[in-house]
Amino acid sequence: MKEGLRRAAGKLTAPFVITLVVLFGFYLGGDSFQGFGLAAMDSTRRVLKYVLGVAAFLSLAVLVQRIVQYVIFDGIVASATGSPVPKLLSQISGLVIFGIAVSACAGIVFEQDLTVLWAASGVAGLVLGMALRELLQDVFAGIALNIDRAIRIGEYIQIHRSGDSKISGQVLEISWRTTRVRDFMGDLVIFPNSKFSAFTITNFSQPEANSFRFVTLTLDARVPLARATRILQAAALEAMTGLAGPDTPVPWVEVKAIRLEGVEYAIFYKAEWRHLGNASPMILQTVLTHLAFAGLETATVLTDGPSAADGAFGQAGGAGPDTAGLAALLRATALFRGLGDAPLRLLASHAAMRELPAGQVAIQAGEAGTSLYLVLEGLLSADAGRRSVRDPLPATLRPGDLFDPAILRGEAHGSTVRCRTAVLLCEFGADALQSLFAAGTGTMERVARNLVAGSSNRSTEDEERVADTLRQMRHLFPAPVGRQGPGIGTGIGPVANTG
Fold first, then answer.
1. Threshold 0.70, pTM exceeds
2. pLDDT given for residue 83 in this prediction
3. 308 in a domain, yes or no?
């Protein structure tokens, strides 16, 4: 606001000073020139009077026009409406102001009868009006558009007429004769105002900046409604968050129809019009990713054979993956990378499934870590956490993410994790981890190295940090008698078991 005031003051200073100087000279010009011995130069004084008079009225017109433009239009009106004033209004106001200034010059400076001037102007205007009929139609159509305020600069619109193709884009300018729209391909489309006003206009920016849309897809009828809703809502929310930011409204899912091949679902989402063009393909891509992770796919016509949905989850309506499927999901995480199939199957056999509703807190910052969680379905969010946390969680947790490694170090959770949608989590408690580490002598070391490799703290050497982490884990998960593991290759012999 201050920058705008300074800019307006800079624009007004020069014409204001010139106007004062010229008006002062015009007021005192006669007597002053006579005092300097120019009384004999009557004709010169008359010409000088005309010049000063015309200059006075024109400079005053410039001053008034800039006050109207920068103070009233760009300042008061733009602040009140929240959008820039159309260029056409500025041009019309300038035309009116300078028209009054010219009339004042003719009547006051040149002492002409204005009725004669206006009569002559009326005849000339009639001739020009007939010659420039289409141009005048564009001008008055532009005036009507600005008075009606059906569209404003910067708004997103769609225009069409019966039988014509639709054009969607953003309004850039409404001038004397044309309206300019930039479509979503980046092209500039220019319409004569008279033609533009005849179109059917859909304004996507009024009365609200966000618009509702939906996409549909069909899933196997054996997928439970709650599970389908959880997966589809999480996928849509992830896509819209990446497109429009973390404050995007949460999408919702409804059953649209029941068909031979399955149940058709509609995913409703809300976003600004500038995001809607990319929203649908992004949502469908993310949905396919979430479905694949859950062992599902979009439905096809039902047959007597097994469904492709009967994948890692055993059945399309299953509450979680089987042991082999869960072991494969664990192997893809950074914490368990490099572990063999047998230890991961053993860990998977001790897993517990947890379904949490949207809005519930999964883990609370400051509480002791008691379990590891693998996200199977749904979407969660984590706060920024404390700065001292060694393993900060990402802001969004999606299927395939594993949290929180605090249990492996005996620490408290550094972040609060909350369910943004309904979620399905796979929980691994202390007993499950104890079974994993008892499965082989190298399992704990491998997990410790993966944990250090993924840590954000780089203040010490890796081998020293691995040794320290391994001591903590052996203290928390002591090996059975006779199953103590060897050292980890630090050059100082076996690491003592502090347990």
1. no
2. 63
3. no
Same domain, 241 and 352: no
**Which pLDDT score, from 0 to 100, does residue 40 have?**
45
444 and 391 within one domain: yes
Regarding whether 359 and 231 lie in a shared domain, the answer is no
Cα 391 versus chain centre, distance: 28
The CATH number covering residue 178 comes to 2.30.30.60
Is 240:210 a contact under the CB 8 Å cutoff?
no
Residue in the structure block whose two tokens are 């996507």: 204
pLDDT tier, 498 (very low <50, low <70, confident <90, very high otherwise): very low
Q: Is residue 433 located within the same domain as residue 346?
A: yes
405-430 per-residue burial string, b: 16 or more CB within 10 A, e: under 16: bbbbbebbbbbbbbbbbbbbbbbbee
404 and 329 housed in the same domain: yes
Any residues with CB less than 8 A from the CB of 227 and at least 6 apart, and which? 317, 377, 424
C-alpha count within 13 angstroms, C-beta hemisphere, residue 45: 16
For residue 404, whether the previous peptide bond is cis, meaning omega lies within 30 degrees of 0, is yes
Supply the pLDDT for residue 492: 32
- Do 347 and 286 lie in one domain? The reply is no
d(CA 311, CA 316): 8
